[in-house]
Amino acid sequence: MIRVIVADDEPLIRAGIKLILTSADDIEVVAEAANGREAVELARRHRADVALLDIRMPVMDGLTALGELGRAVPGTRALILTTFGERDNVLRALRQGGAGFLLKDSAPSELIGAVRAAAAGDAYLSPAATRHVVDSLAGGAAATRAEEARQRVAVLGDREREVLALLGEGLSNADAGRRLHMSEATVKTYVSRILAKLACDNRVQAALLARDAGLGS
Asked: Which residue numbers delimit the HTH luxR-type domain (predicted)?
């Protein structure tokens, strides 16, 4: 079972998320938190696999909790819940090592898929939220970023570029394997090699680099 902590200061939101997650046979919501401090304490107590963190919470916000989780419970993967009005916070979360992010109005199947991806060690990038972040990066430096990204990905082989493009679309290892007719283990090997070649700390950084380089849909 995937053990999950749900952290949001609105009880109705927590209840809705819990209802969706517990409809999956392989997910168990082991605790709920009304703020980031509670989320960190509960994740430590229950050794949760995944923590769903709202960004805006009292006492300790989701971004601060994300950093605390990384230090106190490194085995717990954090997914950030966001809205369209919080693009800067999303970028900060990715830089701090979040396992991904999704919008609060995401479909139930997307929420379940995100939790499964995070528990499996993958990063989850909501397609809508990914486009939102990419849009937020647009501006005067866009051309420079694109050129730098193209230069960085030039070190990759053709197959590695194909895998990177699918990371840019937010696909999991399993989904990428099906698309490319590879085993999940083979895709995982490619991803590790890509991260090393691009000097990326995680899949999220590689996915954003892929988007900057114009790879993927």
From this structure: 149-214
